[in-house]
Amino acid sequence: MADNSDPAVSVCFYVKIDSDDLGWFNSCEGLGLEVVLEQREEGGNNGFVWQLPTRIKYGNVKLTRPVGKDSAKLTAWLCSFASGVQRQTATITAMTGDRDVVATWNLDGVVPVRWSGPSLSADSPKVATETVELAHHGFLPRSA
């Protein structure tokens, strides 16, 4: 029996960008940040080197799923950038197989940087997948 103290195990990710519902994804990679440090050596102090934080870098987020009905939503959203790119806010919600929310991340200033569709071949039948890669400016606090 699982209870609320069990570790989070997510199996799917629901993605919404502003008012666009992009549907369910089964893989989410790249959520994270890195604090860039500048090293400074102080004359006469040989015991350590100063590690000064300078900026925060955010990696791109990759979302992958099998091609399906939600693929049309992603295609429509990507086509909306043909007339110009505008940064948007994304919400990625990790859920269990029972659709219980495990965690939610809000990303600021999201733009698509890459989309790759399925490789289709009758010689090697396998699940057709699509991947979208998103750049962002950072995380937003959880909305009320």
Keywords:
1 helix; two-stranded antiparallel ribbon; 144 residues; 8-stranded antiparallel beta sheet; mainly beta; 10 strands; Pnp Oxidase, Chain A; elongated
How is the secondary structure organized here?
Layout: E1 12-17, E2 20-25, E3 27-29, E4 33-40, E5 50-58, E6 61-66, H1 71-79, E7 88-95, E8 101-116, E9 129-135, E10 138-140
Antiparallel strand pairs: 1-2, 1-7, 3-6, 4-5, 6-9, 7-8, 8-9, 8-10
Q: Can you walk me through this structure?
A:
Strands 1, 2, 3, 6, 7, 8, 9 and 10 form an eight-stranded antiparallel beta sheet that branches. This protein has a two-stranded antiparallel ribbon with strand order 4-5. The protein is elongated and about 70 Å long. Strand 1 and strand 2 form a beta hairpin. The chain starts with 11 loop residues before the first strand and ends with a strand. The protein has one domain (12-36, 54-140): Roll (Pnp Oxidase, Chain A). The longest helix has 9 residues, at 71-79. The protein has one helix and ten strands. With 144 residues, it is mainly beta. The protein has one helix at 71-79, and strands at residues 12-17, 20-25, 27-29, 33-40, 50-58, 61-66, 88-95, 101-116, 129-135, 138-140.
